[in-house]
Amino acid sequence: MGKHINTYLYGFLLAALISSSCDDGRIYDEPIQVEREGGSVRLTAQLSGQDHWASGYSIVLAGFSDDSEYAKTAKGITSGHDGTVDITLTGIPNEVNQIEICAINRLRKRIVSFYTYDYTEQEDTIRINAGAINASMYNSIQTNVFDRSCTSCHGGSTSAAAGLYLTSGRSYDALINVIADKSDSGMYFVTPCQSEESFLHLVLNTDITANWSMDHIDMVTSHDLLQLIDDWIDNGANEN
To answer: Which tens digit of pLDDT belongs to each residue from 77-99?
Structure first.
């Protein structure tokens, strides 16, 4: 009799133990919330000209803060065969207040910007359609150098100083392998792949114009833009 009671008690305790070990309160059904780190934007655009940049530069979607010209975060832009871009930048730091399509150097310093968007972090991904953008190296020089510093004298009015037109649509043909009237040695304005043998380089980087009606040495004061022009020439001086 005692043996049967012991067997019964052993079975009862074993069943209770198994039942207890299987009952975990179904904690795994509780939703797990993971806090997102930073904001995100999704960019669509139609980009051209990004394939002929010199080494050392990258075309990116980047985030900047007001107090810095260095990207806080950046992602390289690649496009389809037709130039279509569809990329998402995630983990954007909260100090970022501007999103840009731009060219940066190896230090992630902004060299030129093609598109800007005032950014405030939101819970959902922000969608940006930037439209058609010419991101070529030469267009960067046209927009940031010639249009800003040169066309007031070189083609912005009815005539162009020294007959040199630097307005959009005319500047490229006026520079490439064209003899500079002011060059005593018959230098071309731009000799592809030879920046230091190009008259444009001398005009912007030396005192060769000191005795002209206008001294050009301080026409472009940004070292980054002067380097951009030289790198464009040394990379073949492509238009697109």
So the answer is: 998 889 999 999 999 999 999 99
Q: Which CATH class is domain 39-135?
A: mainly beta
> How deeply is 84 buried, as exposed, middle or buried, from its count of CB atoms within 10 A (0-12, 13-18, 19+)?
exposed
CB distance 115 to 130 below 8 Å? yes
Residue 139: what are its φ and ψ, rounded to 5°?
-60, -30
**What gap in Å lies between CA 237 and CA 240, rounded to an integer?**
9
Instruction: Kindly tell me the burial class for residue 121, based on how many C-beta atoms sit within 10 Å of its own C-beta (0-12, 13-18, 19 or more).
Output: middle
Confidence (pLDDT) at 30: 53
Phi (first) and psi of residue 132, to 5 degrees: -85, 130
H or E segment at 204? helix 199-205
Domain ranges, ordered by start, for the chain: 39-135, 138-234
